[in-house]
Amino acid sequence: MNQISIDIGNTLSKVGIFDGEVLLNNASFQNEDLQGIKAYVESNQAEHIILSSVAKSSHEVVDILKGLAPIIELSHETTLPFSNNYKTPQTLGMDRVAGIAGAMHFFSNTNCLVIDAGTCITYDFVSKEGLYQGGSISPGLHMRLKAMHEFTGKLPLPTFQEIEDWIGKDTQSAMLTGALWGTLNELNGFIARYDEAFGDLKVIITGGDAPKFVKHLKNNVFAEPNLLLFGLNKILKINV
Known about the structure:
The protein is of the alpha/beta class. It has helices at about 35-40, 60-65, 95-105, 140-150, 170-200, 210-215, 225-235; strands at about 1-10, 10-20, 20-30, 45-55, 70-75, 85, 110-115, 120-125, 130-140, 200-205, 220-225.
């Protein structure tokens, strides 16, 4: 029997099948594909399920999976593998919680900065003593492009593509380089600040836009697309 982690994001749901700490396989589904998620879980004979959601449809997923296995729905009341120093834990996104737990799965007793580059970009820091200190939230790449389009009269909404020259030569390339290199300067700035403040820092990056950034970052980073699934599995293990 397997442990199953389900991460419901803003548009996609990721499901991971674990045997102990080993990720056996995983799959992604559109959030509305509840039957697809159910069929995948059924085919992998779950012993326990943990579910994290930043979307509003989590209760629908819980309802459709009832009876397949005991389900833990991650919340601010769930026992975590770290101490939480966030002033409002009830407002802390469960994706951020799972990311921190994922970092601790790969790097124990280490200062970790977790960067999740998705719809928004989140930065979260956990100390080597296992104390989560908080972090930051900023707009993701598409959100930056969309904001420039929607809050101006004439700027277009370009589809993201990486421009070789960091200096834009027309309006579209200027927007693309501004979004990409503005974000990269932000990423490198946060990494430098955390490294200066805490030292001995491990940077972990995940999220759909992470591959766009990794090769441009000044520091060596650990890129793990399934970080949240590993984190959910770690949380599940201490709750069953």
